[in-house]
Amino acid sequence: MAKTLMKGSEAIAEAAIRAGARYFFGYPITPQTEIPEYMSARMPEVGGCFLQAESEVAAINMIYGAAGTGARAITSSSSPGISLKQEGISYCAGARLPAVILNVMRGGPGLGNIQASQGDYFQAVKGGGNGDYHLLTYAPSSVQEAIDIMMYAYDKAEQYRIPVLFIADGIIAQMMEPVEMPDFVDFKIDPEKKPWACTGWKPGDDPEKRGVINSIYISTEELAAHNDVLQAMYKEVVANEQQWEYYNCENAEFIITAFGTVARIAKSAINELKEQGINVGLVRPITVWPFPYDAVSKAVNAESVKAVLDVELNEGQMLQDVKLAVNGTKPVDFYGHCGSQMPTTDEIVTKIISMKEGK
Amino acid sequence: MSVVFEKTKLLTDKTFHYCPGCNHGIIHRLVAESIDELIKEGVIEEGKVIGVAPVGCSVFAYDYFNCDMYEAAHGRAPAVATGAKRVVGNDALVFTYQGDGDLASIGTAEIVHAAHRGEKICTIFVNNAIYGMTGGQMAPTTLVGQKTTTSPYGRDEAWCGAPIRVSEMLATIPGSYYIERCAVNNNANINKTKRAIKKAFTYQMQGKGFCLIEVLSTCPTNWGLSPVEAMKWLEENMIPYYPLGVKKDKEAE
């Protein structure tokens, strides 16, 4: 298939449509506004619905409404807007609604800035909204990877009845890359596959199939039972859905951990270090929840590895999960900064050399 | 023998949790009967009804309305209904059922913009001038001087403002189609309320636009009055401030 040059945000939006998304609810915020703009032109062409909501709060609740009918719905935003969506995200998780949420991360806290950032890692994987829940969270590092994940994201969301979150730093959405766009999937709402959805129930039908999209369980026993169901599902996701990439890990003296765009910069640094005779590997989590603890642990605990360097476009968030994975077996160092100043290849090379020199 | 009266099918057999004298029971029944009758009249297709419950006293409405239901976050029912309606279109009735804390306070953005978009949904807005579920706090609809647990000296207009008249406000929005305020304090008004609800649902099924029926309601428990005294209080205090009647009807214009 021929590759075409596409801007990340538009490519991701097109992939969502091809994956069956027909309902987009969003609100303008930099650096992801190209997604709603693209959707506003494209949805009418495919018989879908684009709605510019009054706020991010409303948009995520519209997702709750559309997903509750069994449709494939999507919303996108950037960090401060994702904060506003947390209420609805928690409700979607509680009501077990499959949906896709895109976070094109910008600098924070607060309004921060509009440049690329990885500052929402904690928010994405350690909570965000209230209650004991997780989102199946992908951190693509290229436009093509974001497209490829999008093509199965709804299948995963529906299989487990879990909302799916993409965290992409602003670079992924703003850059243009040559991509292969997959074909359309054939998606229709199937009440048989979604007996929980509001697809048209009438008195006299099986009471079990009445659509009740809900996250309130007022009795302690019922809420505990509901949470048991959620936790059992999360266990399955953890067992089946971890994804990561190993790069140059064989006989590596150091292991770098990084996700998203930063992992690509780390690869350049690794290639440069190789020329200098220093062998460095990379473990790149593709799912950040579930986090690939075992994959990190395995790479790090190879005999050749002396230490680990976690690199992020923040002040060290995934670092906590890396440390949990390493569990004290090897030293873990960190390099990164916020304020949307992307760590450079040279900086990573210098850092590894200083680690090698024992500084 | 012919059946001259039966329980509406659109209510489940679940016992209401509402306090004695609360008007939710009557209003639930009117909503359910209206849907039942419109199904019999061929206006609504059986099985094509989606309701959205709020946060507040009617939070468990999904247990009572015998149709597909959502339980929404506080104030967000119009956004949830919007999401559902955009999928099901004119094939199905989509309504929200909200109280005054839910709709007139935390949910003002969602209700105003649902009206603003001319969203083809109906809202049943139950106004009892107080937060009931949390135990009687001041709402935006609480009358000046009215004592609640968070206005123990009576609502002070200088600092809390005068109560919001939601129906009048929404009637000024170009996107709203039909807005009426009703009460269920006597048989005549109960009948009027049902007619208004049926009209709103019919307009929606005709694809016409956003409709809201405000229903004034008592809260004997949190007003600290008996059911009979509460109804009298509603007539003497609420109806004068919240005048009943059609605030907007584009069809009639």
Structure report:
The complex is a heterodimer of chains A (359) and B (253). In chain A, helix 10 packs across helix 11. Chain A has 2 domains: 176 residues, Thiamin diphosphate (ThDP)-binding fold, Pyr/PP domains (Rossmann fold, 3-Layer(aba) Sandwich); 112 residues, Rossmann fold (3-Layer(aba) Sandwich). With 359 residues, chain A is α/β, with parallel strands linked by helices. Helix content of chain A is 40%, strand content 18%. The radius of gyration of chain A is 21 Å and the shape is globular. Chain B is of the alpha/beta class and 253 residues long. Chain B has a single domain, classed as Rossmann fold (3-Layer(aba) Sandwich), CATH 3.40.50.970. Helices cover 38% and strands 17% of the residues of chain B. Chain B is built from 10 helices and 7 strands. In chain B, strand 5, helix 8 and strand 6 form a beta-alpha-beta unit. Chain B is globular, with a radius of gyration of 17 Å. The interface between A and B is large, with 40 and 36 residues. Strand 9 of chain A pairs parallel with strand 2 of chain B, so a sheet runs across the interface.
